[in-house]
Design goal:
globular; about 10% helix; 7-stranded antiparallel beta sheet; mainly beta; Pnp Oxidase, Chain A
Length: about 200
């Protein structure tokens, strides 16, 4: 099968997200200028550079109360900071609660029953029990083609790792099973890993 996205795929559901999988989930915490905490998951998320460490996430929708974007992007544009919380399998239900399109006055930490804790280097909250969290300073927001598509880039200025996730000097993802996004309404989680040595190593 071949299709041009501009012509449509002819299938019951869009296959694009199912093709680009699995995707890590960036559970983005931010704070509005009035002090309201916000927490929302984004599966268009990844690390993009080592030195300095940098991450990105893309927001692809909007809310009526945020003038053509979502709470996360609006907050980050106003404050210049955000935190990426890593989602473990056991937090999947709380993550799902925070994916709803609630009013900007709603604190998703409260709605999901999560404990916020202050970051060390930025004025933002993070998820207290997350396996890891990356404190970030905004470097740029890029408007992408299409309505309300925005790419957010940030430099990581602080890194939190839960002590029980460090084994033999490595951050071991099998200790918490990262939740990953697939297509449609599907998710998965990582339980097994294997090593491949590159030819030039």
């Amino acid at each position: 099968m071949f299709y041009r996205p501009e012509d449509g795929h002819g299938l019951p559901h869009n296959p694009f997200n199912a093709i680009v999988t699995p995707r890590p989930i960036g559970w983005i915490s931010s704070r509005a200028p009035d002090g309201t905490n916000n927490l929302a998951p984004y599966s268009f998320f990844n690390a993009v550079a080592y030195f300095p460490p940098q991450v990105m996430f893309a927001s692809t929708g909007s809310k009526p109360d945020q003038d053509g974007t979502k709470d996360s992007v609006a907050n980050i544009a106003a404050t210049g900071v955000f935190c990426v919380n890593i989602v473990e399998y056991s937090m999947r239900d709380a993550m799902n609660v925070t994916s709803g399109g609630t009013a900007k006055e709603v604190d998703e930490f409260d709605a999901a029953g999560l404990s916020p804790v202050e970051c060390e280097t930025i004025a933002c909250a993070r998820v207290q029990d997350a396996p890891a969290a990356l404190e970030c300073r905004l470097t740029r927001i890029i408007d992408l083609p299409g309505k309300s598509n925005r790419l957010v880039l940030g430099e990581v200025v602080g890194v939190h790792m839960r002590d029980d996730c460090i084994r033999d000097g490595r951050f071991d993802v099998t200790t918490f099973s990262p939740l990953t996004r697939l297509g449609y309404r599907d998710y998965s989680h990582i339980t097994d890993i294997f090593e491949i040595v590159r030819p030039d190593d």
